[in-house]
Amino acid sequence: MHAVFLKPKKEESVRRFHPWVFSGAIQKIDGQPSEGELVKVLDSQGNFLGIGHFQQGSIMVRLLSFQEEPIDENFWKNRITEAYRMRKALGLIIENRNNCYRLVHGEGDGLPGLIVDVYGNTAVMQAHSAGMHKIRNILAKCVVESVPEIHHLYYKSEATLPFRNENAPADGYLVGGFSEQFVALENGLKFYIDWQHGQKTGFFLDQRENRVLLERYASGRTVLNMFCYTGGFSVYALRGNAKLVHSVDSSAKAIELTDKNVALNFSDQRHQSFAEDAFKYLQRYEKREPFYDLIVLDPPAFAKHRDAVSNALKGYRRLNRKAFEMIRPGGIIFTFSCSQAITREQFRQAVFSAAAESKRNVRILHQLSQGIDHPINIYHPEGEYLKGLVLWVE
Length: 394
Known about the structure:
Elements: E1 3-6, H1 12-15, E2 20-22, E3 26-30, E4 38-42, E5 48-54, E6 59-65, H2 73-89, E7 100-105, E8 114-119, E9 122-127, H3 130-134, H4 136-146, E10 152-155, E11 172-175, E12 182-186, E13 189-193, H5 208-217, E14 222-226, H6 232-239, E15 244-249, H7 252-265, E16 271-275, H8 278-284, E17 292-297, H9 309-326, E18 327-337, H10 344-358, E19 362-368, E20 387-393
Parallel strand pairs: 1-4, 9-10, 14-15, 14-17, 15-16, 17-18
Antiparallel strand pairs: 1-3, 2-6, 4-5, 5-6, 7-8, 8-9, 10-11, 12-13, 18-20, 19-20
């Protein structure tokens, strides 16, 4: 096994169990490890620090263990089994109530570079590193053996792998096969899931608890759900007895799926959808009297890397300012950032600036994060990617 030696004093973060080794911390590499190969990480004196997957790029090693132990099929199965045990203990898997959840959340479950979401008897697996991609068949076997209800596993990594490989297989089933459109249950509500063509693995499971919170505030309110995707917040608002719900997304396919999900749960006429750019939609309402009592702002990541942070913060400020200007007095705004490169404090500052520019009196009711099946490794604060605020606007 090849060895990666760190520069003097660069081992401190690894000794604090941070799972990433950056290229700038490396002094030398023993040999020429291939993409995705297991390597040992040593300090400048040759002392063992950990073992992980090697990959060219800013993050050169994703550490899997800080002990000298075999990284074999038993290792993978033990980690996946423990992840499943935690979800069971947290009460996430409830027959006839909730059959969709995140089984593996990368660093949060000690498996950096791996995502596994479960929808009924099907798991959808994504590799975000060459190392996880190389062992995808072993991982698929371990997932099926560790989780009794899973009989199918769909591999969806064409858009998530950080490299292009002509020999890499296309997305498809590694275990079983399933062609019918699947209906997931989340807290008793039904949603069509399209893991083959939809964004991510087909559904944004990380907002589960936040959708429940929105349902509590929806009664009697007119609701605007911006960047609605599959209409998760819209469906919860309708069950919460919202007076009216408008769903907006630039994707016509997303709007079609939102309408189908609403119809799957309700037969009333309280919902209307719009396939339109979010900023154009908000601009159309600029000069009208405030209409909405509750607005949800859940945009895609404005900053996917640190170079885009400045422009992203301007985007968050502009978006939130428009929402402040068009919401009724006594209204509530749920506003989010899913950009990992944006810190919680930066996002809050952008929202603060938007509030000041709108000259509205604003109070924070809740500070939100991702769901409990998206755990954050305490040694890896970068895992806290979803930031949210619930605001009362006078």
